[in-house]
C-alpha cells in the first residue's frame, strides 16, 4: 500500500513538472523564485517519533523544537532559549534564565514549567537522551529553571542542547507523530515512512522560513535519483557512488560531518560473559594486530575506493572539536606495521598470504550495517587494503540487530558527537556492555578511567577539555578502535536553491543534518 501511495505521489509530481515545462522541455519557472520545495534526504526524516523525551534530536537536528543551548558556529555551545546561566562552584547546580518571547506553534507561551516538564519526562524514560546524572529540575518562576545533579558532570550542558522542549499542555503518548514545538517548523501533514509536509511556525522567535511549504518524501536510492533527473526534487540525498552522476539543472552539494566510520577492535580474548554472550576476539586482542592495522592501512586509498573520495581521513575524534586531540600519527607505514607483526610472532608460515600465531589465523570478520551501504563499502575497501599486511578481513553485511555481537565481531560504527561524553561511553571500563554501544572494544585502562573522571568532575570547559585530550593520548597507545574516515554527505541540489553553510561540523545523521538550517534556505 505504501509503495502505491508513493507511486501516486511521484506521478503527481511528474504531472506538475510536465505542466510547467515548455520551450523545448525546459522548465519555464526555473528562474522564478519558489515558495515551495520538495526534497528527499534519507529515510529517517519521515520515520516519525519526533519526540525529544524519547531521544529524538540526540543524533541529528530537531527542527521542530527549541533547546536551552545549541551547538553552533565552530562547534561551540551558544544560548537558544537560554538568555544566561550560572553553574555553582561545586558543579552541582545549573540555573537558567530563559527568553520570554518563545511560543509553541499553537501560540502558547513557552515557560520554565515546560522546560521542567520536558526534562522530568525525559529522565523517566530510557533513551538516547541520557539524564542519569540529573537529580532534579525545578521551575522557580516563569523564566527561571534550576537543574540539580547527583554529582559534577561537565558534559551536562551538551545534554541541554540535545533535548528539545515539548509543551506540557499538549504532550501525550502520541506526541511523537504530532509535534508542536517552538522551533522553526511545524507539521502540516504526515504519513509515516511516506511523506512529511512542513510549514513555518509563524510564532518562531528566530529567522522565519522563506518557504511556505516543504514536502519531504521517503524514496529509495534508485527512485530518488530518477525523480531528481526528471526534475521532481529540489534536493536529494545520494550515495557517494552516485554523487558524480550528472543531472541537468542540479549541482553537487558536499557536506562535511564530524561522524567517523570507526571499527571496534575487541581487546580481550574470546570468552563468554555472565549472560552467555560471546565476547572478545582472539585476533584483535593482540595489541600487535591493532597497532599494525592503525599505522599500516592507507586511509586515503580506502576513502577513494569505498566512498569515491567523498570523505576526510581521520585518526580520532574530529580535530575541529574543542575537546579533540586531532591527528596524532601517520598511516600507510607498511614496513613498520609488518615489523610489529613479525616481532609479535605473527608469521605466514604456510605461504597462503595470511599470518598466523599459535595456530590462530590473522583473520577477522567485520560487520557493516546492511542499511548503510557506505559503511559496508568501507569494510570491503579496508579488507582489500590490509592484504598487504598479511591480515585477512572478511566483510559481513548485517542488520542492526546483529551488531549487538560487536563485542565479539568487530563492527563499523559511526562515532561522532559534539558532546565529549562519547569518549566516556566508548573508552571507560564502567561502560563495557552498557546498552549496545557501551565500550564495544571491552577496553580497560585504569589511567584512562581516572582521567575521564577528572574530565567529568571539571567545573569549566577549558579544564574538562584538557582532561579529555589527555585521555585520548593515553588510549591512543592501545588502539581499541580503528578510526578510518569521516564520510561527506552528498546531495544533488537544484540550481537556484541556496543553502547557507552551517559554519560547523554537523553529525552525519544518515542525511538528515542538511535540514538543520532549512529556515535560512532561499531561492
Summarize the structure.
The protein has helices at 2-19, 112-123, 156-162, 221-229, 287-296, 299-307, 334-343, 373-385, 421-427, 446-457, 461-475, and strands spanning 21-22, 26-27, 36-40, 69-71, 77-79, 82-87, 93-98, 134-141, 144-149, 185-191, 195-200, 213-217, 235-238, 250-255, 260-264, 271-272, 278-279, 311-313, 356-357, 360-361, 363-369, 392-398, 412-415, 481-487, 489-494. It has 523 residues and is of the alpha+beta class.
How would you portray this structure in words?
Belongs to the bacterial solute-binding protein 5 family. It comes from Desulfitobacterium hafniense (strain Y51). InterPro entries: Peptide/Ni-bd (IPR030678), SBP_5 (IPR039424), SBP_5_dom (IPR000914). Residues 77-421 form the Solute-binding protein family domain. With 523 residues, the chain is α+β, with helices and mostly antiparallel strands. It has 3 domains: 2-47 and 192-255, 3-Layer(aba) Sandwich (D-Maltodextrin-Binding Protein, domain 2); 54-174, Dipeptide-binding Protein, domain 1 (Alpha-Beta Complex), CATH 3.90.76; 260-487, Dipeptide-binding Protein, Domain 3 (Dipeptide-binding Protein, domain 3, Roll). Helices cover 23% and strands 22% of the residues. The chain has a 7-stranded mixed beta sheet. It has a 4-stranded antiparallel beta sheet with strand order 6-7-9-8, with helices on one face. A hairpin with a 5-residue loop joins strand 6 (82-87) and strand 7. Helix 5 runs antiparallel to helix 7 (334-343), helix 6 (299-307) packs across helix 8 and helix 10 (446-457) packs antiparallel against helix 11 (461-475). Residues 1-29 have low confidence and may be disordered.
Amino acid at each position: 500500500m505504501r509503495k502505491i501511495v508513493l507511486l501516486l505521489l511521484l506521478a503527481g509530481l511528474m504531472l506538475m513538472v510536465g505542466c510547467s515545462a515548455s520551450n523545448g522541455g525546459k522548465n519555464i519557472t526555473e528562474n522564478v523564485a519558489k515558495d515551495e520545495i520538495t526534497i528527499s534526504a534519507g529515510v529517517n526524516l519521515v520515520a516519525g517519533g519526533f519526540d525529544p523525551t524519547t531521544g529524538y534530536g540526540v543524533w541529528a537536528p530537531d527542527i521542530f523544537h527549541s533547546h536551552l543551548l545549541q551547538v553552533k558556529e565552530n562547534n561551540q555551545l551558544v544560548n537558544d532559549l537560554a538568555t544566561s546561566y550560572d553553574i555553582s562552584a561545586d558543579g552541582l547546580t545549573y540555573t537558567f534564565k530563559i527568553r520570554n518571547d518563545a511560543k509553541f506553534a499553537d501560540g502558547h507561551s513557552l515557560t520554565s514549567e515546560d522546560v521542567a516538564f520536558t526534562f522530568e519526562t525525559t529522565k523517566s524514560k530510557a533513551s538516547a537522551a541520557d539524564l542519569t546524572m540529573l537529580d532534579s529540575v525545578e521551575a522557580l518562576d516563569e523564566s527561571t529553571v534550576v537543574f540539580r545533579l547527583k554529582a559534577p558532570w561537565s558534559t551536562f550542558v551538551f545534554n541541554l542542547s540535545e533535548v528539545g522542549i515539548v509543551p506540557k499542555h499538549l504532550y501525550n503518548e502520541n506526541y511523537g507523530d504530532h509535534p508542536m514545538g517552538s522551533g522553526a517548523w511545524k507539521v502540516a501533514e504526515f504519513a509515516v515512512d511516506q511523506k512529511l509536509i512542513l510549514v513555518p511556525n509563524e510564532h518562531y522567535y528566530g529567522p522565519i522560513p522563506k518557504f511556505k511549504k516543504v514536502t519531504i518524501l521517503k524514496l529509495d536510492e534508485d527512485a530518488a535519483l530518477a525523480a531528481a533527473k526528471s526534475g521532481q526534487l529540489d534536493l536529494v540525498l545520494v550515495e557517494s557512488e552516485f554523487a558524480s552522476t550528472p543531472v541537468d539543472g542540479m549541482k553537487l552539494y558536499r557536506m562535511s560531518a564530524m561522524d567517523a566510520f570507526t571499527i571496534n577492535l575487541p581487546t580481550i580474548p574470546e570468552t563468554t560473559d555472565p549472560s552467555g554472550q560471546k565476547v572478545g576476539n582472539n585476533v584483535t586482542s593482540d595489541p600487535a594486530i591493532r597497532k599494525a592495522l592503525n599505522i599500516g592501512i592507507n586511509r586515503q586509498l580506502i576513502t577513494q575506493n569505498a566512498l569515491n573520495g567523498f570523505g576526510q581521513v581521520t585518526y580520532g575524534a574530529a580535530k575541529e572539536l574543542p575537546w579533540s586531540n586531532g591527528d596524532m600519527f601517520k598511516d600507510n607505514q607498511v614496513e613498520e606495521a609488518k615489523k610489529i607483526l613479525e616481532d609479535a610472532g605473527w608469521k605466514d608460515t604456510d605461504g597462503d598470504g595470511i599470518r598466523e600465531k599459535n595456530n590462530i589465523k590473522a583473520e577477522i570478520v567485520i560487520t557493516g550495517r546492511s542499511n548503510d551501504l557506505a559503511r559496508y563499502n568501507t569494510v570491503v575497501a579496508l579488507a582489500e587494503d590490509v592484504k598487504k599486511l598479511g591480515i585477512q578481513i572478511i566483510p559481513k553485511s548485517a542488520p542492526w540487530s546483529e551488531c549487538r555481537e560487536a563485542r565479539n565481531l568487530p563492527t563499523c560504527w559511526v562515532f561522532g558527537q559534539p558532546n565529549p561524553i562519547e569518549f566516556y561511553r566508548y573508552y571507560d571500563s564502567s561502560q563495557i556492555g552498557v546498552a549496545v554501544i557501551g565500550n564495544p572494544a571491552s577496553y580497560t585502562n585504569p589511567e584512562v578511567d581516572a582521567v575521564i573522571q577528572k574530565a567529568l568532575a571539571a567545573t569549566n570547559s577549558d579544564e574538562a577539555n584538557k582532561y579529555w585530550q589527555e585521555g585520548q593520548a593515553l588510549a591512543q597507545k592501545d588502539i581499541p578502535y580503528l578510526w578510518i574516515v569521516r564520510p561527506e554527505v552528498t546531495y544533488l541540489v537544484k540550481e537556484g536553491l541556496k543553502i547557507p553553510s552551517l559554519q560547523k561540523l554537523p553529525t552525519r545523521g544518515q542525511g538528515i543534518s542538511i535540514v538543520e538550517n532549512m529556515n535560512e534556505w532561499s531561492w
